[in-house]
Amino acid sequence: MDRKVVWHRNDLRLRDNKALSEAGQKAVPIYIFDPNWLENELVSDTRIEFVIECLQDLNRQYQAKNSRIALFKGNPVKVLSGLQDEGYEIYFNEDANHFRRQMEEKARQRFTGFTGDGIVRNKEGARKNWRANAENYIKSKPFRTPEDIEDNPLEAGIKLDEIREKYDIEPEKKKFGPGGSKEAGKRLQDFLDNIEKYPSSISSPIKAEKNTSHLSPYIRYGCVSRRQVFRHAKWRAKNSEKPDKFEMFIDRIYWHLNISQKVEDNPKLHKESVNPVFRDLNKEDRSEEKINAWKKGETGYPLVDASMRALVETGWINFRMRAMCATFFSYILGQWWKEGADFFYKHLIDSDIAINYYQWQMHSGIVGVHKHRIYNPTKQIKDNDPEGKFIKKYVPELRALSPEQIVKPWEMSDKEQRKTGVDIGKNYPEPIVNRKNKAQKARKFFKAKKGEAYAAFKDDEVWKRASLSPKHDREQIIENASNQKSLTEY
Ligand SMILES: Cc1cc2nc3c(=O)[nH]c(=O)nc-3n(C[C@H](O)[C@H](O)[C@H](O)COP(=O)(O)OP(=O)(O)OC[C@H]3O[C@@H](n4cnc5c(N)ncnc54)[C@H](O)[C@@H]3O)c2cc1C
To answer: Residue 289 region, left (φ>0) first, then alpha (ψ -120 to 50), else beta?
Structure first.
């Protein structure tokens, strides 16, 4: 048989899809719902529904080429092995950005995996020629889409509505927007039409809700490839009178590639700190009270609370608020990074293992090479939500407060509390911890550990797992380790 099964996963598109391009008109497109994914407690119904919409869109695209997508449910390697036994060749795009690394390895051994996505597969560590490889990928022409595809002979094993019904899919969050390539293309166009607002909106939680691209879940599920986004933005920049306005956005597409490499290089990224010196840091000091307050948005710090409530309600917050909430959890509340990262992973619409868990490790200081940026949530209000619009949107009990009062509600006098109806400690909590003291303590701790953390990179395995971009010089880091000795006295 000359037909080739094209197994879609996080590549829910027809354009710029290497496996599909290689299969050409002989493609037999399929998607397999893995019960392990559907039942994973970190996968929200909102995200499952988003993927279902992506599949509906994908099917429409295939129908336009006289084909369709066949849906299955089961252990993907078993389903694919069955199809292989029937005589199909199995094509897929290699991708380690999921929790089932062993399955990925099996698939790579048994079936025909394609690379060519800017990610280097190399057991020795990928960073040597990484930048050149990434540039080469992102600047090259997209893979050809087949003009026409022969009829799909496979009977679908399951229907989308059966998935919805069997797994009781009831999206918990406000609708983000329909999944799929069509919507991704529309968003990219609309966003680039208004890109001049982007640079000044990125850090403001309320402006970012409108003015950043919101392409993250579409890129995550491959409704559009990073290369398509990059090339289109570059082309628009070239034809624009203000090409510099596109730079920040284009940089982020590189960041995406850079971070995706990390999960290829480090299968334990989502569960172990990159740096062994910080393994299980704070795990023993778990505080149910602090964790619950953070999750519910009841820490007494208005911007943290608004961000956490927005995350749970909508599945999306901007980069700065993600970073601030992560540093608050790890450095200020002194909690184990992994528990916070899992909570984000469950609630984000764009949950991406590489980005989420690496950003969490970075913003918890446990990679061991980055500067400790401990965001101050009161300063962040002054800088990024000066009128308190975002806070008031998600923390309605603070709506009566003036811009001055909302920065530190706990400093309001009794009279102010009576006047605004905000009784601190009753209808809005007192700050759960003293932020300043906790930040100082954390800084001291990490300063003391710096030498040890740097020295950990002498180990080849640790260096490989860190998968640091080429700007980090290993020899320099190791050399600096010995300069830090006296710091252990802190
Ligand atoms: C703790 C933490 C967790 C995060 N978890 C995720 C996650 O699970 N999934 C995710 O897609 N992003 C994550 N980010 C990165 C970033 O916050 C989001 O990509 C961005 O806010 C998505 O909104 P947007 O599409 O409007 O972004 P835009 O600003 O419009 O950026 C365009 C695209 O660039 C990519 N991008 C943007 N920032 C980054 C970054 N720092 N690293 C890598 N790629 C980036 C995304 O694909 C994004 O869609 C996280 C950041 C932090 C600090």
So the answer is: alpha
